[in-house]
Amino acid sequence: MKTSSKTLALTESAVMVALAFVLSFLKVVDMPYGGSVTAFSMLPIVIIAYRHRLGWGLASALAYSLLQMLMGLNNLSYATSAAAAVAIILLDYIVAFLVLGLAGVFRKNPAKQPSEIALGALLGCILRYACHVISGCTVWAGVSIPTSDGLIYSLGYNATYMIPETLLTVVGAYYAGQVLTLGEPRVTRRQAVSGSDSTAIASMPAALAVVIASAFVFGMMQNPDSGSFDITLVAQAGLMDWLPVLLVLVLGAAVSVALAVVLPKKAK
Fold first, then answer.
1. Rounded distance between C-alpha atoms, residue 35 and residue 49, angstroms
2. Rounded to whole angstroms, how far apart are CA atoms 164 and 248?
3. Which of 32, 24, 35 minimizes the C-alpha distance to 129?
């Protein structure tokens, strides 16, 4: 790689890591025992990984993971042993975010750029989810996750924020690959959204709203006293608890309807 290319990659990586870190504070849903749905916070790392391939992707993801770890150092106070503290550092931070650097492994054909970067984003999200699940049913079992059926609970709990986070990241990655030339030295507009893609993209906000609303409902079921899952708590929820659920569903439906009207016109 030439010096100018290295400088470009370094500059872009630094900017995108900083952007990812800032976006991680913009939380749509913040779960009571860790985990959140953010405003595309993983997408900048995915783009760098696809744009500058594996080496720069892993380096950027590592830098981002260290920033996340610094922000979550207080969680180490819950570790029951030195081994548990190391496991938290690795599974909840270092490895969990490092895997986002693998998002460029499918890059081969520029014509298939949207699907390639979307697959890379999906791979990174699935591996991050696996890290959190393993951490949940081992390190956090008996702390914030019930000891009995810890794996099942960890699978369900981490899915409530990782599914909408994955949808946001994958859809954002696909759209970025659809409209930008991410594989070129200079990023330019690639093409408008085609008519065949407009229906799928228009339906995403509504689908995402359902998932986010489900995360809110799951949050109502968390018993703060026992740290367990109690479905009967939903019946005790008040109007203010249900208000975010209704707002998310209405907003998601409205955005989908607007996109369904606008995107076909743009494609034509």
1. 23
2. 12
3. 35
Any idea where the domains of the chain sit in the sequence? 3-189, 192-268
Q: How far is 53 from 235, CA to CA, in rounded Å? A: 49
Measured between alpha carbons, how far is 146 from 228 in angstroms, rounded to an integer? 6
Amino acid at 184: E
Q: Phi and psi dihedrals of 189, rounded to 5?
A: -70, 135
Threshold 0.85, pTM exceeds: no
Q: Encode the chain (268 residues) as per-residue pLDDT tens digits.
A: 565 788 889 999 999 999 999 999 988 777 777 788 898 999 999 999 999 989 999 999 999 999 999 998 888 887 878 888 899 999 999 999 999 999 999 999 988 899 999 999 999 999 999 999 999 888 877 666 666 777 888 888 888 889 889 988 998 899 889 888 888 888 887 765 555 566 767 777 887 787 778 777 777 776 666 555 666 777 777 888 888 889 988 998 898 888 888 876 665 5
Note the CATH number of domain 3-189: 1.10.1760.20
- Under DSSP, the state recorded for 193 is P
Contact 131, 96 (CB under 8 A): yes
Q: How many CB atoms lie within 10 A of CB 110?
A: 13
